[in-house]
Amino acid sequence: MLFEITLTTILFLIFASFFAGFIDSIAGGGGLIQLPALLIGLPKSETVTVLGTNKFASVFGTTTAAALYRRQIKPDPKALIAMAIPAFIGSMAGALLASKLPTDAMRPIVLVLLIAVAIYTWRKPDLGKVEILRHAPKKHNQIAMAAGLIIGFYDGIFGPGTGSFLMLILVASLGYAFISASAIAKVVNVSTNIGAIIVFGLHGVILWKLGALMALSNVSGAIAGSRLAIKGGSTLVRKVFLLVTMALIIKVGIDTFASM
Predict the structure, then answer these.
(1) How far is it, in rounded angstroms, from Cα 16 to Cα 165?
(2) Most CB atoms within 10 A, among 30, 99, 119, 148?
(3) Biggest alpha carbon distance in the chain?
(4) What is the Cα–Cα distance from 33 to 163, expressed in whole angstroms?
């Protein structure tokens, strides 16, 4: 398959993967760049093939970003596990249904939710600047588990806005600062990507060679983005988060009205 793709297309996808890794490592939303790039570059491929290849290319950059964050920011391991394991299970379940359920019907709902996320974050300029964890430990972890399962399922079956939804739950509901929320979201994203990759891989729909090339570029972008985010702190992450969420609103909005 790799040799059937033109050099121009390969270079285009490599560049898109770098930029996706860069943006995703700061505030999520890399799929906003990489997934459309794959759809443009592989117009004859089935949707599940594009989704599987996208997940495979992304997981390496997300893992790299998670490791870099982990060196500087050390959130409670119990909260990480509480969110990551249900997210992994949810992602596998979503990926199993990805080719069976009509995802077009989900776009209007996702669009409304993303608009709500953007308005809520914009109207609270101090949101996520200071870390003040909410709820007793047991309830804190229960909320993390429920959110991980639901968002993981959504990521496996559809995907756009996953990072935005994770970040909002972590910041607004659980009380993390944006920089800590980004660090936790990376670990959760790794688990959702792995869950989806297992399912897509078993069904033989991943373009492994192309995905490997894109993964190298995605890692490079993730390294650059993570270092910038750690240096810029929660203020920078919040700004990028809002920009990514607004871009997602535009993208999902266009897709929604185009399919009507």
Answers:
(1) 23
(2) 30
(3) 56
(4) 13
Residue 24: both structure tokens together: 């995703």
Give the residue numbers spanning the domain of 236.
2-258
Quote the CA–CA distance of 196 and 75 in Å, as a whole number: 25
**Nearest-angstrom CA–CA distance, 42 and 49:** 9
For residues 39-50, give the mean pLDDT.
85
Nearest by Cα to 9 from 34, 36, 37: 37
> HEC profile for the chain?
CHHHCCHHHHHHHHHHHHHHHHHHHHHCCCHHHHHHHHHHHCCCCCHHHHHHHHHHHHHHHHHHHHHHHHHHCCCCHHHHHHHHHHHHHHHHHHHHHCCCCCHHHHHHHHHHHHHHHHHHHHCCCCCCCCCCCCCCHHHHHHHHHHHHHHHHHHHHHCCCCHHHHHHHHHHHHCCCCHHHHHHHHHHHHHHHHHHHHHHHHHCCCCCHHHHHHHHHHHHHHHHHHHHHHHHHHHHHHHHHHHHHHHHHHHHHHHHHHHCC
pLDDT (tens digit, 9 = 90+) per residue, 189-236?
999 989 989 988 888 878 999 999 999 999 999 999 999 999 999 999
How many other C-beta atoms lie within 10 A of the C-beta of residue 47? 12
State mean pLDDT over 139-148: 95
Give the count of domains, the chain: 1
pLDDT at 203: 82
